[in-house]
Write a structure and sequence with these properties.
heterodimer, A: mainly alpha, MetI-like fold, 11 helices, elongated, B: mainly alpha, 12 helices, 75% helix, flat
Chain lengths: 313, 308
Protein backbone atom coordinates (compact mmCIF):
# COMPACT_ATOMS: atom_id res chain seq x y z
CA UNK A 1 0.00 0.00 0.00
CA UNK A 2 2.18 2.82 -1.17
CA UNK A 3 0.91 6.33 -1.37
CA UNK A 4 0.53 7.72 -4.84
CA UNK A 5 0.66 11.30 -3.64
CA UNK A 6 4.35 11.39 -2.77
CA UNK A 7 5.82 14.02 -5.05
CA UNK A 8 9.17 13.55 -6.70
CA UNK A 9 12.21 14.93 -5.02
CA UNK A 10 12.57 18.67 -5.12
CA UNK A 11 9.16 19.30 -6.62
CA UNK A 12 8.08 21.82 -4.03
CA UNK A 13 11.41 22.81 -2.62
CA UNK A 14 10.92 26.54 -2.62
CA UNK A 15 7.16 26.96 -2.47
CA UNK A 16 5.88 27.36 1.07
CA UNK A 17 2.99 25.03 1.76
CA UNK A 18 0.13 25.39 4.21
CA UNK A 19 0.69 23.35 7.35
CA UNK A 20 -0.82 19.91 7.08
CA UNK A 21 -1.47 20.49 3.41
CA UNK A 22 -2.50 17.51 1.34
CA UNK A 23 0.75 17.30 -0.54
CA UNK A 24 3.80 18.12 1.56
CA UNK A 25 7.19 18.19 -0.12
CA UNK A 26 9.23 15.06 -0.07
CA UNK A 27 12.29 15.26 2.10
CA UNK A 28 15.64 14.87 0.42
CA UNK A 29 17.17 11.43 0.45
CA UNK A 30 18.40 10.41 3.85
CA UNK A 31 21.99 10.22 2.69
CA UNK A 32 22.23 13.88 1.72
CA UNK A 33 23.01 14.50 5.37
CA UNK A 34 22.10 17.54 7.41
CA UNK A 35 19.60 19.11 5.06
CA UNK A 36 17.05 16.56 6.28
CA UNK A 37 17.20 18.20 9.67
CA UNK A 38 16.95 21.70 8.27
CA UNK A 39 14.08 20.72 6.00
CA UNK A 40 12.26 19.10 8.91
CA UNK A 41 12.76 22.18 11.07
CA UNK A 42 11.39 24.39 8.30
CA UNK A 43 8.31 22.23 8.01
CA UNK A 44 7.89 22.02 11.76
CA UNK A 45 7.95 25.82 11.97
CA UNK A 46 4.97 25.95 9.61
CA UNK A 47 2.96 23.76 11.95
CA UNK A 48 1.38 26.28 14.30
CA UNK A 49 0.06 23.74 16.80
CA UNK A 50 3.44 22.07 17.10
CA UNK A 51 5.30 25.35 17.51
CA UNK A 52 2.81 26.58 20.10
CA UNK A 53 3.28 23.29 21.94
CA UNK A 54 7.03 23.68 21.83
CA UNK A 55 6.75 27.16 23.37
CA UNK A 56 4.31 25.99 26.05
CA UNK A 57 6.50 23.02 26.93
CA UNK A 58 9.56 25.22 27.26
CA UNK A 59 7.59 27.57 29.49
CA UNK A 60 6.28 24.63 31.51
CA UNK A 61 9.80 23.36 32.13
CA UNK A 62 11.03 26.84 33.06
CA UNK A 63 8.12 27.42 35.43
CA UNK A 64 8.56 24.04 37.09
CA UNK A 65 12.28 24.44 37.63
CA UNK A 66 12.48 28.18 38.40
CA UNK A 67 8.99 28.90 39.79
CA UNK A 68 9.43 27.29 43.21
CA UNK A 69 12.35 29.63 43.96
CA UNK A 70 10.21 32.69 43.31
CA UNK A 71 7.31 31.61 45.50
CA UNK A 72 7.41 32.30 49.23
CA UNK A 73 6.49 28.71 50.22
CA UNK A 74 8.72 25.67 50.47
CA UNK A 75 7.71 22.20 49.28
CA UNK A 76 6.64 20.88 52.67
CA UNK A 77 6.19 24.14 54.52
CA UNK A 78 3.03 24.17 56.61
CA UNK A 79 1.04 27.37 56.68
CA UNK A 80 -0.57 27.08 60.10
CA UNK A 81 -3.21 29.68 59.39
CA UNK A 82 -4.40 28.16 56.10
CA UNK A 83 -5.43 24.52 56.13
CA UNK A 84 -7.23 23.35 53.03
CA UNK A 85 -8.09 26.84 51.82
CA UNK A 86 -9.48 27.49 48.37
CA UNK A 87 -7.38 29.36 45.80
CA UNK A 88 -7.14 33.02 46.72
CA UNK A 89 -5.00 36.03 45.98
CA UNK A 90 -5.02 37.45 49.51
CA UNK A 91 -3.18 34.78 51.47
CA UNK A 92 -0.59 34.11 48.78
CA UNK A 93 -1.83 30.58 47.98
CA UNK A 94 -2.90 31.21 44.39
CA UNK A 95 -3.97 27.61 43.91
CA UNK A 96 -5.04 26.87 47.48
CA UNK A 97 -3.53 24.60 50.09
CA UNK A 98 -3.93 20.93 50.94
CA UNK A 99 -5.20 19.43 54.19
CA UNK A 100 -1.76 19.92 55.77
CA UNK A 101 -1.59 23.60 54.85
CA UNK A 102 0.97 23.08 52.09
CA UNK A 103 0.84 25.30 49.04
CA UNK A 104 -0.62 23.45 46.06
CA UNK A 105 1.14 25.54 43.42
CA UNK A 106 4.59 24.90 44.89
CA UNK A 107 3.85 21.22 45.26
CA UNK A 108 2.56 20.99 41.69
CA UNK A 109 5.68 22.70 40.35
CA UNK A 110 7.95 20.40 42.34
CA UNK A 111 5.87 17.47 41.17
CA UNK A 112 6.39 18.72 37.64
CA UNK A 113 10.16 18.64 38.14
CA UNK A 114 9.93 15.00 39.14
CA UNK A 115 7.48 14.03 36.40
CA UNK A 116 9.41 15.82 33.66
CA UNK A 117 12.79 14.49 34.73
CA UNK A 118 11.44 10.96 35.08
CA UNK A 119 10.09 11.30 31.58
CA UNK A 120 13.38 12.48 30.10
CA UNK A 121 15.62 10.01 31.90
CA UNK A 122 13.34 7.01 31.39
CA UNK A 123 12.91 7.85 27.73
CA UNK A 124 16.69 8.15 27.41
CA UNK A 125 17.17 4.74 29.05
CA UNK A 126 14.63 3.15 26.72
CA UNK A 127 16.23 4.94 23.79
CA UNK A 128 19.71 3.62 24.54
CA UNK A 129 18.59 0.05 25.19
CA UNK A 130 16.12 -0.05 22.32
CA UNK A 131 18.37 1.50 19.69
CA UNK A 132 21.39 -0.63 20.55
CA UNK A 133 19.35 -3.81 20.80
CA UNK A 134 17.45 -3.20 17.58
CA UNK A 135 20.50 -2.13 15.62
CA UNK A 136 22.56 -5.12 16.72
CA UNK A 137 19.73 -7.57 16.03
CA UNK A 138 19.07 -6.10 12.62
CA UNK A 139 22.73 -5.83 11.64
CA UNK A 140 23.89 -9.25 12.83
CA UNK A 141 20.77 -10.92 11.46
CA UNK A 142 20.29 -14.66 11.11
CA UNK A 143 19.85 -16.80 14.16
CA UNK A 144 20.99 -14.11 16.58
CA UNK A 145 18.37 -11.74 15.24
CA UNK A 146 15.75 -14.44 15.53
CA UNK A 147 16.68 -15.17 19.11
CA UNK A 148 16.84 -11.53 20.13
CA UNK A 149 13.46 -10.77 18.59
CA UNK A 150 11.87 -13.84 20.16
CA UNK A 151 13.03 -12.44 23.49
CA UNK A 152 11.25 -9.17 22.68
CA UNK A 153 8.10 -11.15 21.83
CA UNK A 154 8.30 -12.89 25.16
CA UNK A 155 8.74 -9.61 27.00
CA UNK A 156 5.59 -8.39 25.25
CA UNK A 157 3.64 -11.28 26.75
CA UNK A 158 4.61 -10.27 30.29
CA UNK A 159 2.12 -7.87 31.83
CA UNK A 160 4.30 -4.78 32.04
CA UNK A 161 2.57 -3.52 35.19
CA UNK A 162 3.65 -6.65 36.93
CA UNK A 163 7.18 -6.19 35.64
CA UNK A 164 7.44 -2.61 36.86
CA UNK A 165 5.96 -3.48 40.23
CA UNK A 166 8.35 -6.36 40.65
CA UNK A 167 11.36 -4.29 39.64
CA UNK A 168 10.23 -1.73 42.17
CA UNK A 169 9.84 -4.36 44.88
CA UNK A 170 13.16 -6.01 44.11
CA UNK A 171 15.21 -2.84 43.99
CA UNK A 172 13.39 -0.72 46.55
CA UNK A 173 11.56 2.47 45.78
CA UNK A 174 14.37 4.75 44.86
CA UNK A 175 13.46 7.46 42.36
CA UNK A 176 16.36 6.58 40.06
CA UNK A 177 15.16 3.02 39.96
CA UNK A 178 11.75 4.23 38.88
CA UNK A 179 13.51 5.88 35.96
CA UNK A 180 15.34 2.70 35.17
CA UNK A 181 12.32 0.44 35.65
CA UNK A 182 10.14 2.49 33.32
CA UNK A 183 12.92 2.71 30.76
CA UNK A 184 13.47 -1.01 31.04
CA UNK A 185 9.92 -1.82 29.97
CA UNK A 186 9.51 0.87 27.33
CA UNK A 187 12.36 -0.12 25.03
CA UNK A 188 10.55 -2.96 23.25
CA UNK A 189 8.80 -0.90 20.58
CA UNK A 190 11.95 1.11 20.02
CA UNK A 191 13.95 -2.07 19.44
CA UNK A 192 11.42 -3.29 16.88
CA UNK A 193 11.39 -0.01 14.98
CA UNK A 194 15.18 0.28 14.87
CA UNK A 195 15.57 -3.34 13.83
CA UNK A 196 13.18 -2.84 10.93
CA UNK A 197 15.06 0.25 9.83
CA UNK A 198 18.42 -1.49 10.15
CA UNK A 199 17.28 -4.44 8.07
CA UNK A 200 16.36 -2.07 5.27
CA UNK A 201 19.49 0.03 5.62
CA UNK A 202 22.08 -2.68 5.76
CA UNK A 203 21.57 -3.64 2.11
CA UNK A 204 22.33 -0.10 1.00
CA UNK A 205 25.52 0.71 -0.90
CA UNK A 206 27.08 2.94 1.72
CA UNK A 207 27.10 0.09 4.22
CA UNK A 208 28.66 -2.15 1.61
CA UNK A 209 31.22 0.55 0.92
CA UNK A 210 32.06 0.79 4.62
CA UNK A 211 32.49 -2.98 4.65
CA UNK A 212 34.75 -2.86 1.63
CA UNK A 213 36.88 -0.21 3.32
CA UNK A 214 37.41 -2.62 6.19
CA UNK A 215 35.28 -0.87 8.81
CA UNK A 216 34.42 -3.25 11.65
CA UNK A 217 30.91 -4.32 12.62
CA UNK A 218 30.55 -2.28 15.83
CA UNK A 219 31.76 0.85 14.04
CA UNK A 220 29.36 0.34 11.17
CA UNK A 221 26.49 0.04 13.64
CA UNK A 222 27.60 3.10 15.58
CA UNK A 223 28.69 5.41 12.76
CA UNK A 224 26.52 4.40 9.83
CA UNK A 225 23.43 2.52 10.93
CA UNK A 226 22.26 4.25 14.08
CA UNK A 227 22.54 7.83 12.73
CA UNK A 228 20.41 6.83 9.75
CA UNK A 229 17.61 5.45 11.90
CA UNK A 230 17.26 8.75 13.73
CA UNK A 231 14.17 10.01 11.87
CA UNK A 232 11.74 7.33 13.03
CA UNK A 233 13.50 7.17 16.37
CA UNK A 234 12.94 10.88 17.06
CA UNK A 235 9.28 10.48 16.17
CA UNK A 236 8.95 7.55 18.48
CA UNK A 237 10.80 9.34 21.28
CA UNK A 238 8.33 12.21 21.25
CA UNK A 239 5.56 9.66 21.59
CA UNK A 240 7.39 7.85 24.38
CA UNK A 241 7.81 10.92 26.57
CA UNK A 242 4.07 11.42 27.20
CA UNK A 243 3.66 7.67 27.63
CA UNK A 244 6.33 7.65 30.31
CA UNK A 245 4.86 10.66 32.11
CA UNK A 246 1.52 8.89 32.14
CA UNK A 247 3.12 5.68 33.39
CA UNK A 248 4.95 7.46 36.18
CA UNK A 249 1.79 9.26 37.34
CA UNK A 250 -0.09 6.01 37.09
CA UNK A 251 2.42 4.23 39.33
CA UNK A 252 2.44 7.13 41.76
CA UNK A 253 -1.33 7.10 41.68
CA UNK A 254 -1.28 3.48 42.83
CA UNK A 255 1.15 4.43 45.59
CA UNK A 256 4.08 2.70 43.91
CA UNK A 257 5.90 5.73 42.59
CA UNK A 258 7.84 8.51 44.27
CA UNK A 259 7.45 8.87 48.01
CA UNK A 260 7.30 11.69 50.53
CA UNK A 261 8.87 14.15 50.85
CA UNK A 262 9.16 14.08 47.06
CA UNK A 263 6.01 14.40 45.04
CA UNK A 264 4.89 14.10 41.44
CA UNK A 265 1.82 14.92 39.43
CA UNK A 266 0.53 11.37 39.88
CA UNK A 267 0.92 11.57 43.66
CA UNK A 268 -0.84 14.94 43.77
CA UNK A 269 -3.69 13.69 41.58
CA UNK A 270 -4.06 10.67 43.80
CA UNK A 271 -4.18 12.89 46.90
CA UNK A 272 -6.58 15.24 45.16
CA UNK A 273 -8.90 12.41 44.18
CA UNK A 274 -9.45 11.52 47.83
CA UNK A 275 -10.30 15.13 48.69
CA UNK A 276 -12.17 16.10 45.56
CA UNK A 277 -15.51 16.72 47.23
CA UNK A 278 -14.21 19.11 49.87
CA UNK A 279 -11.17 20.52 48.03
CA UNK A 280 -11.60 20.09 44.27
CA UNK A 281 -8.65 22.39 43.52
CA UNK A 282 -6.33 19.70 44.86
CA UNK A 283 -7.38 17.47 41.97
CA UNK A 284 -7.86 20.13 39.33
CA UNK A 285 -4.52 21.97 39.55
CA UNK A 286 -2.15 19.02 39.06
CA UNK A 287 -4.54 17.45 36.53
CA UNK A 288 -4.48 20.58 34.40
CA UNK A 289 -0.68 20.75 34.49
CA UNK A 290 -0.45 17.09 33.52
CA UNK A 291 -3.05 17.36 30.77
CA UNK A 292 -1.50 20.49 29.23
CA UNK A 293 1.92 18.83 29.15
CA UNK A 294 0.57 15.64 27.59
CA UNK A 295 -1.46 17.64 25.08
CA UNK A 296 1.56 19.63 23.97
CA UNK A 297 3.84 16.61 23.80
CA UNK A 298 1.35 14.82 21.58
CA UNK A 299 0.94 17.83 19.31
CA UNK A 300 4.68 18.18 19.06
CA UNK A 301 5.05 14.48 18.33
CA UNK A 302 2.47 14.67 15.54
CA UNK A 303 4.16 17.75 14.14
CA UNK A 304 7.57 16.11 14.18
CA UNK A 305 6.18 13.04 12.47
CA UNK A 306 4.72 15.17 9.70
CA UNK A 307 7.96 17.11 9.42
CA UNK A 308 10.31 14.13 9.39
CA UNK A 309 8.29 11.58 7.46
CA UNK A 310 7.36 12.79 3.99
CA UNK A 311 5.10 9.80 3.45
CA UNK A 312 2.49 10.57 6.11
CA UNK A 313 -0.18 13.01 4.94
CA UNK B 1 -4.24 -22.20 7.34
CA UNK B 2 -4.87 -25.02 9.79
CA UNK B 3 -1.25 -26.10 9.83
CA UNK B 4 -0.21 -22.48 10.34
CA UNK B 5 -2.54 -22.20 13.32
CA UNK B 6 -1.22 -25.41 14.81
CA UNK B 7 2.34 -24.27 14.30
CA UNK B 8 1.65 -21.00 16.04
CA UNK B 9 -0.06 -22.77 18.92
CA UNK B 10 2.92 -25.08 19.24
CA UNK B 11 5.19 -22.07 19.38
CA UNK B 12 3.03 -20.54 22.10
CA UNK B 13 4.02 -23.27 24.54
CA UNK B 14 7.74 -22.39 24.79
CA UNK B 15 6.85 -18.67 24.90
CA UNK B 16 4.59 -19.25 27.86
CA UNK B 17 7.18 -21.48 29.52
CA UNK B 18 9.77 -18.71 29.36
CA UNK B 19 7.25 -16.14 30.61
CA UNK B 20 6.36 -18.38 33.55
CA UNK B 21 10.00 -19.07 34.36
CA UNK B 22 11.01 -15.40 34.27
CA UNK B 23 8.07 -14.39 36.46
CA UNK B 24 8.64 -17.23 38.90
CA UNK B 25 12.25 -16.38 39.61
CA UNK B 26 11.74 -12.62 39.47
CA UNK B 27 8.96 -12.91 42.02
CA UNK B 28 11.12 -15.00 44.32
CA UNK B 29 14.01 -12.56 43.96
CA UNK B 30 11.87 -9.91 45.68
CA UNK B 31 12.73 -9.58 49.36
CA UNK B 32 10.12 -10.63 51.91
CA UNK B 33 7.62 -13.44 51.78
CA UNK B 34 3.88 -14.04 51.88
CA UNK B 35 3.79 -14.44 55.65
CA UNK B 36 5.46 -11.24 56.85
CA UNK B 37 2.38 -9.30 57.87
CA UNK B 38 2.07 -6.69 60.58
CA UNK B 39 1.79 -9.45 63.14
CA UNK B 40 5.06 -11.29 63.72
CA UNK B 41 4.36 -15.02 63.61
CA UNK B 42 6.11 -17.31 66.09
CA UNK B 43 8.98 -19.05 64.25
CA UNK B 44 7.49 -22.56 64.68
CA UNK B 45 4.20 -21.52 63.14
CA UNK B 46 5.92 -19.76 60.28
CA UNK B 47 8.04 -22.87 59.67
CA UNK B 48 4.90 -25.00 59.68
CA UNK B 49 3.15 -22.66 57.29
CA UNK B 50 6.10 -22.68 54.94
CA UNK B 51 6.28 -26.46 55.10
CA UNK B 52 2.56 -26.71 54.34
CA UNK B 53 3.02 -24.63 51.19
CA UNK B 54 6.36 -26.31 50.33
CA UNK B 55 8.12 -22.97 50.68
CA UNK B 56 10.88 -24.63 52.72
CA UNK B 57 12.09 -26.61 49.76
CA UNK B 58 14.96 -25.41 47.56
CA UNK B 59 13.83 -23.01 44.85
CA UNK B 60 14.43 -25.36 41.89
CA UNK B 61 12.30 -28.00 43.61
CA UNK B 62 9.51 -25.49 44.16
CA UNK B 63 9.77 -24.48 40.53
CA UNK B 64 9.45 -28.06 39.32
CA UNK B 65 6.57 -28.67 41.69
CA UNK B 66 4.80 -25.54 40.46
CA UNK B 67 5.31 -26.48 36.83
CA UNK B 68 4.05 -30.00 37.53
CA UNK B 69 0.90 -28.68 39.13
CA UNK B 70 0.43 -26.15 36.37
CA UNK B 71 0.64 -28.87 33.74
CA UNK B 72 -2.36 -30.45 35.45
CA UNK B 73 -4.21 -27.15 35.43
CA UNK B 74 -3.67 -26.51 39.14
CA UNK B 75 -2.69 -22.93 39.94
CA UNK B 76 -2.33 -23.69 43.65
CA UNK B 77 -3.87 -22.02 46.70
CA UNK B 78 -3.69 -18.29 47.34
CA UNK B 79 -1.54 -17.26 50.29
CA UNK B 80 -3.48 -14.17 51.24
CA UNK B 81 -7.04 -15.08 50.37
CA UNK B 82 -7.29 -18.09 52.65
CA UNK B 83 -9.60 -20.92 51.59
CA UNK B 84 -9.50 -19.80 47.98
CA UNK B 85 -7.57 -21.41 45.20
CA UNK B 86 -6.05 -19.11 42.59
CA UNK B 87 -8.28 -20.70 39.97
CA UNK B 88 -11.35 -19.78 42.01
CA UNK B 89 -10.15 -16.21 42.46
CA UNK B 90 -9.49 -15.79 38.75
CA UNK B 91 -12.78 -17.40 37.81
CA UNK B 92 -14.59 -15.05 40.19
CA UNK B 93 -12.87 -11.90 39.00
CA UNK B 94 -12.44 -12.59 35.31
CA UNK B 95 -16.13 -12.51 34.26
CA UNK B 96 -16.42 -9.10 35.89
CA UNK B 97 -13.33 -7.71 34.16
CA UNK B 98 -14.39 -9.36 30.92
CA UNK B 99 -17.83 -7.77 31.04
CA UNK B 100 -16.54 -4.26 31.73
CA UNK B 101 -13.60 -4.60 29.34
CA UNK B 102 -15.63 -6.20 26.57
CA UNK B 103 -18.31 -3.54 26.75
CA UNK B 104 -15.66 -0.82 26.78
CA UNK B 105 -13.95 -2.23 23.69
CA UNK B 106 -17.30 -2.61 21.94
CA UNK B 107 -18.22 0.97 22.75
CA UNK B 108 -14.79 2.19 21.65
CA UNK B 109 -15.13 0.46 18.27
CA UNK B 110 -18.69 1.65 17.82
CA UNK B 111 -17.68 5.28 18.37
CA UNK B 112 -14.01 5.33 17.43
CA UNK B 113 -14.19 3.70 14.01
CA UNK B 114 -16.89 5.95 12.51
CA UNK B 115 -15.22 9.04 13.98
CA UNK B 116 -11.91 8.06 12.42
CA UNK B 117 -13.49 7.35 9.03
CA UNK B 118 -15.41 10.62 9.01
CA UNK B 119 -12.32 12.59 10.02
CA UNK B 120 -10.32 10.94 7.24
CA UNK B 121 -12.95 11.55 4.57
CA UNK B 122 -13.43 15.19 5.62
CA UNK B 123 -9.73 15.77 6.04
CA UNK B 124 -8.68 19.25 7.20
CA UNK B 125 -12.30 20.28 7.71
CA UNK B 126 -13.78 21.60 10.93
CA UNK B 127 -15.17 18.14 11.72
CA UNK B 128 -11.72 16.64 11.28
CA UNK B 129 -10.08 19.17 13.62
CA UNK B 130 -12.87 18.74 16.15
CA UNK B 131 -12.63 14.95 16.17
CA UNK B 132 -8.85 14.98 16.34
CA UNK B 133 -8.78 17.53 19.15
CA UNK B 134 -11.25 15.44 21.11
CA UNK B 135 -9.18 12.35 20.46
CA UNK B 136 -6.06 14.12 21.64
CA UNK B 137 -7.95 15.18 24.74
CA UNK B 138 -8.88 11.56 25.38
CA UNK B 139 -5.21 10.63 25.20
CA UNK B 140 -3.91 13.61 27.17
CA UNK B 141 -6.28 13.32 30.11
CA UNK B 142 -5.48 10.03 31.82
CA UNK B 143 -8.33 7.83 33.00
CA UNK B 144 -7.32 8.19 36.64
CA UNK B 145 -8.27 11.85 36.25
CA UNK B 146 -11.43 11.30 34.20
CA UNK B 147 -12.79 8.48 36.31
CA UNK B 148 -12.88 10.26 39.70
CA UNK B 149 -14.30 13.39 38.09
CA UNK B 150 -17.03 11.31 36.43
CA UNK B 151 -17.77 9.58 39.71
CA UNK B 152 -17.97 12.95 41.44
CA UNK B 153 -20.15 14.66 38.84
CA UNK B 154 -22.55 11.89 37.84
CA UNK B 155 -22.41 9.85 41.00
CA UNK B 156 -22.25 12.36 43.81
CA UNK B 157 -23.28 15.81 42.58
CA UNK B 158 -25.99 14.86 40.08
CA UNK B 159 -26.75 11.49 41.64
CA UNK B 160 -27.78 9.94 38.32
CA UNK B 161 -25.69 6.82 38.62
CA UNK B 162 -24.02 4.94 41.45
CA UNK B 163 -20.53 6.39 42.05
CA UNK B 164 -19.08 2.96 42.68
CA UNK B 165 -19.73 -0.64 43.59
CA UNK B 166 -20.58 -3.63 41.47
CA UNK B 167 -23.99 -4.74 42.70
CA UNK B 168 -23.88 -8.01 40.79
CA UNK B 169 -23.31 -6.24 37.48
CA UNK B 170 -26.48 -4.16 37.45
CA UNK B 171 -26.70 -1.87 34.42
CA UNK B 172 -26.46 1.48 36.28
CA UNK B 173 -23.26 0.28 37.96
CA UNK B 174 -21.75 -0.56 34.59
CA UNK B 175 -22.22 2.77 32.87
CA UNK B 176 -19.52 4.93 34.47
CA UNK B 177 -16.70 2.38 34.54
CA UNK B 178 -17.35 1.28 30.96
CA UNK B 179 -17.35 4.87 29.69
CA UNK B 180 -14.28 5.78 31.71
CA UNK B 181 -12.45 2.77 30.38
CA UNK B 182 -13.45 3.34 26.77
CA UNK B 183 -12.56 7.03 26.42
CA UNK B 184 -8.87 6.41 25.85
CA UNK B 185 -9.58 3.52 23.50
CA UNK B 186 -11.98 5.64 21.46
CA UNK B 187 -9.25 8.23 21.10
CA UNK B 188 -6.61 5.72 20.01
CA UNK B 189 -8.90 3.90 17.59
CA UNK B 190 -10.17 7.11 16.00
CA UNK B 191 -6.64 8.39 15.44
CA UNK B 192 -5.41 5.11 14.03
CA UNK B 193 -8.43 4.65 11.80
CA UNK B 194 -8.06 8.18 10.43
CA UNK B 195 -4.39 7.71 9.59
CA UNK B 196 -4.83 4.36 7.86
CA UNK B 197 -8.00 5.49 6.06
CA UNK B 198 -6.13 8.47 4.63
CA UNK B 199 -3.38 6.19 3.40
CA UNK B 200 -5.87 3.79 1.81
CA UNK B 201 -7.82 6.54 0.08
CA UNK B 202 -4.63 7.59 -1.70
CA UNK B 203 -3.89 4.17 -3.15
CA UNK B 204 -4.31 2.89 -6.71
CA UNK B 205 -7.18 0.49 -6.19
CA UNK B 206 -9.34 3.29 -4.79
CA UNK B 207 -8.64 5.31 -7.90
CA UNK B 208 -9.66 2.30 -9.95
CA UNK B 209 -12.86 1.88 -7.96
CA UNK B 210 -13.69 5.54 -8.53
CA UNK B 211 -12.79 5.27 -12.21
CA UNK B 212 -15.21 2.45 -12.77
CA UNK B 213 -17.94 4.77 -11.53
CA UNK B 214 -18.70 3.59 -8.03
CA UNK B 215 -20.35 6.07 -5.75
CA UNK B 216 -18.22 7.48 -2.95
CA UNK B 217 -20.24 5.53 -0.37
CA UNK B 218 -19.58 2.28 -2.20
CA UNK B 219 -15.91 3.11 -2.60
CA UNK B 220 -15.59 3.59 1.13
CA UNK B 221 -17.76 0.71 2.29
CA UNK B 222 -16.70 -1.94 -0.23
CA UNK B 223 -13.10 -1.08 -0.90
CA UNK B 224 -11.49 1.33 1.54
CA UNK B 225 -12.84 0.11 4.86
CA UNK B 226 -11.42 -3.39 4.93
CA UNK B 227 -7.74 -2.70 4.30
CA UNK B 228 -7.91 0.32 6.60
CA UNK B 229 -8.88 -1.90 9.49
CA UNK B 230 -5.52 -3.70 9.52
CA UNK B 231 -3.61 -1.38 11.90
CA UNK B 232 -6.62 -1.17 14.20
CA UNK B 233 -6.82 -4.96 14.32
CA UNK B 234 -3.18 -5.33 15.22
CA UNK B 235 -3.59 -2.71 17.93
CA UNK B 236 -6.71 -4.38 19.26
CA UNK B 237 -5.17 -7.80 19.86
CA UNK B 238 -2.88 -6.89 22.75
CA UNK B 239 -5.22 -4.07 23.82
CA UNK B 240 -8.14 -6.47 24.32
CA UNK B 241 -5.95 -8.84 26.31
CA UNK B 242 -4.84 -5.96 28.52
CA UNK B 243 -8.31 -4.53 29.00
CA UNK B 244 -10.25 -7.69 29.75
CA UNK B 245 -7.68 -8.68 32.35
CA UNK B 246 -8.82 -5.66 34.25
CA UNK B 247 -7.88 -2.05 34.66
CA UNK B 248 -6.35 -1.53 38.07
CA UNK B 249 -7.28 2.15 38.14
CA UNK B 250 -10.89 1.75 37.07
CA UNK B 251 -11.44 -1.17 39.40
CA UNK B 252 -9.94 0.74 42.30
CA UNK B 253 -11.89 3.95 41.70
CA UNK B 254 -15.25 2.32 41.12
CA UNK B 255 -14.77 -0.53 43.58
CA UNK B 256 -15.19 -3.30 41.05
CA UNK B 257 -14.27 -6.89 41.98
CA UNK B 258 -12.30 -7.73 38.82
CA UNK B 259 -8.88 -9.32 38.48
CA UNK B 260 -6.91 -6.14 37.73
CA UNK B 261 -6.21 -5.56 41.41
CA UNK B 262 -4.64 -9.00 41.82
CA UNK B 263 -1.62 -7.91 39.78
CA UNK B 264 -0.81 -5.11 42.19
CA UNK B 265 -1.99 -6.60 45.46
CA UNK B 266 -0.51 -9.99 44.71
CA UNK B 267 2.90 -8.55 43.94
CA UNK B 268 2.86 -6.34 47.01
CA UNK B 269 1.69 -9.13 49.32
CA UNK B 270 4.14 -11.64 47.80
CA UNK B 271 1.14 -13.83 47.11
CA UNK B 272 3.33 -15.92 44.81
CA UNK B 273 0.71 -18.28 43.45
CA UNK B 274 -1.85 -15.55 42.83
CA UNK B 275 0.63 -13.41 40.91
CA UNK B 276 1.84 -16.39 38.91
CA UNK B 277 -1.74 -17.37 38.14
CA UNK B 278 -2.65 -13.94 36.82
CA UNK B 279 0.59 -13.68 34.84
CA UNK B 280 0.06 -17.06 33.20
CA UNK B 281 -3.54 -16.17 32.45
CA UNK B 282 -2.57 -12.84 30.92
CA UNK B 283 0.32 -14.34 28.97
CA UNK B 284 -1.91 -17.05 27.49
CA UNK B 285 -4.50 -14.46 26.56
CA UNK B 286 -1.88 -12.27 24.81
CA UNK B 287 -0.55 -15.21 22.83
CA UNK B 288 -4.07 -16.19 21.84
CA UNK B 289 -5.04 -12.66 20.82
CA UNK B 290 -1.90 -12.26 18.72
CA UNK B 291 -2.73 -15.48 16.91
CA UNK B 292 -6.28 -14.27 16.30
CA UNK B 293 -4.90 -10.98 14.95
CA UNK B 294 -2.69 -12.80 12.46
CA UNK B 295 -5.57 -14.99 11.31
CA UNK B 296 -7.84 -11.97 10.96
CA UNK B 297 -5.11 -10.30 8.93
CA UNK B 298 -5.30 -12.93 6.25
CA UNK B 299 -9.08 -12.62 6.23
CA UNK B 300 -8.88 -8.85 5.79
CA UNK B 301 -6.01 -8.66 3.35
CA UNK B 302 -5.97 -11.18 0.52
CA UNK B 303 -2.27 -10.49 -0.06
CA UNK B 304 -1.47 -12.23 3.22
CA UNK B 305 -1.71 -15.98 3.01
CA UNK B 306 -0.30 -18.51 5.41
CA UNK B 307 0.69 -21.48 3.33
CA UNK B 308 3.41 -23.16 5.30
Amino acid sequence: MTSTTTPYRGEHDDTPLPAGGPNPPAGPDKNTGESLGREAWRRLKQNKAAMASLVILTLMALICFIGPHLLPWALDEVDWSNFQTAPSLENGHYFGTDANGRDILVRTLFGGQVSLSVALVATFVSLVIGVLYGAVAGYVGGRTDNLMMRFVDIMYSLPFMFLVILLMVVFGRNIFLIYAAIGAVEWLDMARIVRGQTLALKRREFIEAAHALGVGGPTIVRRHLIPNTLGPVIIYVTLTVPKVILLESFLSFLGLGVQEPLTSWGVLISEGKDMMESAPWMLIVPSVFLAVTLFCLNFLGDGLRDALDPKTR
Amino acid sequence: MLSYTLKRLAFAVPTLLVVITISFFLMRAAPGGPFDGERQLPPEIEANLKAAYHLDEPLPMQYLRYMGNLAQGDFGPSFKYKDFSVTELIMQGFPVSLEIGGLAIGLALLIGLPLGVIAALKRNSTIDYLVMSLALGGIAVPNFVIAPIMALVFGVLLGWLPAGGWNGGALPNLVLPVIALSIQQIAYIARMMRASMIETMGSHFIRTARAKGLSEVQVVLRHALRPSLLPVVSYLGPAIAAIVTGSVVIEQIFGIPGIGRYFVQGALNRDYTLVMGTVVFYGALIVLMNLLVDLLYSALDPQIRYND
